[in-house]
Every structure is written in structure tokens, then in C-alpha cells.
Design a protein that fits this description.
It is a single chain. The chain is of the alpha+beta class. The protein has one domain: MDM2 (Orthogonal Bundle). It has helices at residues 11-14, 21-27, 34-47, 63-68, 77-85; strands spanning 16-17, 32-33, 58-60, 74-76.
Length: 89
């Protein structure tokens, strides 16, 4: 019987990325994996009650997030990850 190999975490997701100065205001300036960037963003969104009360998929940006979202005041979760990836090196 063949031994099942344990699933390896995706190295690309775990590789630390450097947030831009704009994004650093929300998630900090240290290089962290993408997964952590997303976690910190959600923590920030929840802490500042920026999730739309009627449509939970929408995020209402405050000034710091508006800069990250390219000036948009309202984005959905999927658009958020796309916009945030532009701020990662």
C-alpha cells in the first residue's frame, strides 16, 4: 500500500511579501505572508466596523483603506484581495 503524503502548504502563500507604504498603515510594515496580510486586513475591518451591515460581502473603506483600494469607498471581498495584491511586493 502506498503511503499517503501529507499535503504541503503552498510555498507561494507562505512566502513573506512586503506591503507598500499605503498598505503598511493598515497591516504593519514588516514583510509577512499573504495569508497574514488578509487576516490583519479582516481584523482591521472588524475592529473598525467597516463591513457593510446589510451586505456582509461589501467593505466600506475608511481613509486608510480608501488609499489601499485605489480611492474606492466601497469594495466587495473579492475585489479587495485583487486591489490589495497590487500593494504587495
Amino acid at each position: 500500500m502506498a503511503k499517503k503524503s501529507k499535503r504541503k502548504p503552498n510555498a507561494a502563500f507562505m512566502k513573506p511579501v512586503q506591503p507598500s507604504a499605503t498598505l503598511a498603515e493598515v497591516v504593519g510594515s514588516k514583510a509577512i505572508p499573504r495569508t497574514e496580510v488578509t487576516k490583519k486586513l479582516w481584523a482591521y475591518i472588524k475592529k473598525n466596523k467597516l463591513q457593510d451591515s446589510k451586505n456582509k460581502r461589501m467593505i466600506n473603506a475608511d481613509d486608510a483603506l480608501k488609499a489601499v483600494f485605489g480611492g474606492k469607498s466601497k469594495v466587495n471581498m473579492f475585489e479587495m484581495t485583487k486591489l490589495v495584491s497590487k500593494h504587495l511586493k
